[in-house]
Amino acid sequence: MFIPLPRMILLPYRLIRLIYELLRKKGWSDEDKKVLKWLDKPDDPLRPEDYRVKYFNRLNITIEAKKPILLKYSGSSGLTSRKVIPARLFRRGEYIYLEAFCLKKREYRRFRLDRIKYLAEG
């Protein structure tokens, strides 16, 4: 027995199916592949000199306290202000990164410590 479905149910299905087909044909861009490759790499161990990097100790304390901080970050889009909840510090290659939950973007982000220009408890 065939039960007709209302068009309102079929429309989201067709839209999702169309998006899936477009993504499947397009594939990943080279930039996406680079990011995925970088995320798959294991963290490098922290070196003794890493603990002397600017803001490293303050960030370690805020990670343990689980307090939000305000930072000014010089990224690809210029100087931005972000309020974040720090999660961990790690090193990849020659750079030390802060992984934190960004309250502005509502997702986890990674910030290079050498690009942080200002840090305050927020």
**What gap, in angstroms, lies between the N and C termini?**
62 Å
Which whole number gives the mean pLDDT?
Answer: 82
Helix fraction, binned, reads: 25-40%
List the helices and strands in order.
HHHEEEEE
Number of helices: 3
Number of domain units: 2
What fold name goes in the CATH topology slot of the largest domain? SH3 type barrels
Number of strands: 5
What class do helices, strands and sheet pairing give?
A: alpha+beta
Largest sheet: 5 strands, antiparallel
> Uncertain spans, ≥5 residues at pLDDT below 50?
none
* Top-tier CATH class of the largest domain: Mainly Beta
Identify the CATH architecture of the largest domain.
Roll
Strand content: 25-35%
Strand line-up across the major sheet:
4-3-2-1-5
The outline comes out as globular
Rounded Rg? 21 Å
Write up this protein:
By secondary structure, this protein is α+β, with helices and mostly antiparallel strands. The chain folds into two domains: 7-37, no CATH class; 42-121, SH3 type barrels (Roll), CATH 2.30.30. The chain is 34% helix and 34% strand. The chain has three helices and five strands; from the N terminus they run αααβββββ. It has a five-stranded antiparallel sheet. Strand 1 and strand 2 form a beta hairpin. The longest helix has 20 residues, at 7-26. The radius of gyration is 21 Å and the shape is globular. The model has no long low-confidence stretch (mean pLDDT 82).
